[in-house]
Amino acid sequence: LDLSVSAGQLADATSNMGQRLLEPPSVAGWETHRGWLDSATMLVRLNAARVAADDLLDAPATCARHDLSSPTDARRFAIERTLGASISPALRSVIDDVNGTTPDVLRRSLGLLLATPEYQMA
Fold first, then answer.
1. Of 32, 93, 105, 119, which has the highest C-beta tally within 10 A?
2. Where residue 33 falls among pLDDT bands split at 50, 70, 90?
């Protein structure tokens, strides 16, 4: 997604989500996603999604780099980079209703998609 994240930010984010880098709970590693996702880590993940879409994403640069010249292009790109073909018709309808400039549509669409249960459980 062309996010600008430092190693420290990434380490802090994963630690806050209950998965400290290079420190798994056992030699088998971490449990599968449903095993470590709970109400506390879900809130952290939703906040991380908001930060990614609102603060870390350079939407105009991403639009230019990927030749996203219309809001429709931005919606399509956001869907392809997150849920792809597995997006439900209901969620696609919500994303289709996102309006604004092309960079704004990209930012808002990604923010919505990253915060969905479908994405979080993927």
1. 105
2. low
